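Note to self: the last two entries modelled the partners one at a time, which told us nothing about the interface. This time every component goes in together.
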Amino acid sequence: MTQSQEETFVKGRAGADIEIRHASHSYGPTLVVDDITFSADAGEIVTLLGPSGSGKTTLLRMIAGFVPARRGSILVGGSDVTALPVHRRNIGMVFQNYALFPHLNVRDNIAYPLARAKVRRAARPSIVAEALDAVRLPGVEERMPSQLSGGQQQRIALARAIVNRPRLVLMDEPLGALDRRLRESLQVEIVRIAREFGLTVVNVTHDQEEAFTISDKIAVLSHGKLLQYGPPEDLFRAPGSVEVADFLGESNVLHGVVELGREGHRLRRGDDLVLLTDQHVRSAGLVPGQDVVVVVRSWSARLVPLEDARTQRGRSWVRARIAAVLFTGDSRKIVLHSQQGETLSVRYTIDAEIPGVQGDEVAVQWDPSLGVVTSARTSPQEGDR
Amino acid sequence: MSGRDSGVAEVTDLAAVGIRRAGRPGIDFWTLLGTPAMLVVLVAFGVPLFMVVYKSATDPGLVNYTDVMGDPVFRKSLFKTIEIAVAATLAALLLGYPYAYVMARSGRWMRSFLLVALMVSFWTSLLIRTFAWQVLLQNTGVINTELKRLGLIDTPLPIIRNEFAALVGMTQMLAPFLILAVYALIRAIPPELEQAAMGMGARRSTMFRTVVLPLSMPGVAAGCVLVFVLALGFYITPQVLGGPSERMVGQSIAEAVHAFVRPGLACAMAVILLLLVGLVLAATARFMRLSDILKMGSMSE
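The predicted structure of the combined assembly is written out below.
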């Protein structure tokens, strides 16, 4: 590689856009990745979010090339890489267990991709030093991985993943092995580095907080299917299904049958008043007699005295008894039992006053437009919104 | 002093008594439990070993050693032993490493199959395996008969009663030790290291050379030393499969006992062989922990 090529190698490249088209993979008869389609622009951080067994790791391995796509295709920078062997895909990888080469010192670890790309030996140390600067860990070239802490090792892994400016950086639960504080500071670091170098990142996690913190787009996966894809805020504000809503934050799931009352559509639930907005009725195509589920976030609901709830108009409420008030560090969680036997939870900030104590009967009240409504017995919505 | 304080003092005294009692030598529970095993080792290994060393120097005297070392036939068999042991080690490495790698990295079913295949052969008596090789290799054996039937050869191939046959047999006996040593090391390499390397632009062969090979080196070294040391003491396999002209030390020892009826001489040979093994292990101990090698050796027959 010539000098000018090396300059370009170091400075000129940025991440590529990525497109997944109808990607599928099966182990035996089970579809672990089932017809997934989405795309992300160059420089975006995409998170594949889902519980274990959702297919998110398999999808990541398909993008990397370790697992073949049985159907569908994967495009990076506009060109189809589905049939390309792993070593020619130009990707950087970060793993939960860091995957640093234990027999090589930090310099040789970070220089590994450079050596594979035939960068001149003399040019490597300065490129390595630059990468170490980028992860704010300069001067550790001579150390062995085992001499570094977990957080430091993951920074080195990050430096190694970005040193040759890959078109795609793939991260498999990168922060899973770190403690909470380290995780939070590294989340910020990952975003900063990705922006600084214009990297396209595909990240896999089951931690919704991490997904919200670092992502431009989130793909929510469950049982191999893509439930919803979009910016974190959209997902949070308008989850397309109960499953997504449930997964993206602590929430309450209320069952009931649709009926037409004086106030318009509502759930038939004893004294409880669970209103359905016109928007709900239209988008979910609700008809009286239908079994539905209303999902309300713990942070969206408030507690009010029952008599106040009965007199206020235009708000939904459910009668419940306070079972416990828990202090969870950064907030208070109030656990309640509804008359229908559901366990509900409501969140308050630490300094907020809570209208009631354990054993009190209160109304859990919320703005009907903040609830998400879906039919109870249909399969979760598929694909893009 | 308050009542509570004296209570504490009492507890402390009791603890001190307890420590003193535990510290008294000779009656510790685990020592007691280990004593029979230690006696067995002493009687079964220590005493015979001492007798061998003692006999080599007294029956009839140290002349055994000068006789042995002065005997060109013995010297030749000593060098032959080393030569065959080296060859068996290399053959075991060439066949065993790929086997170990495939076993470590294949799926559950394939791994179980390879492991069972290995263990079945490992647990079959060395004597039976040796005679099985004889059945395969001899002039009227399976291989020669089949080749003749297919018209590929007219006269039987010379694959029995020579160094080649001894080597084939010994390699088959010893390869499992090396395979298990290397397998353990490769299993300890996280597959993510291989994936990371390939993701970063290494083709499979490059990845293997730069990641798997260096990380499995301790297993290779341990396996090789183990196979070499075990090969030095082989007797039955070279006796049955090997030729009359190239003899290993084990065979020389047997001859000294049976043909020459000079047990002292045999003992001297055994001591020399033992010293050779000790030398190899001492040299190895400079580079790695000996207990790691011996741990794998404990699976030996």
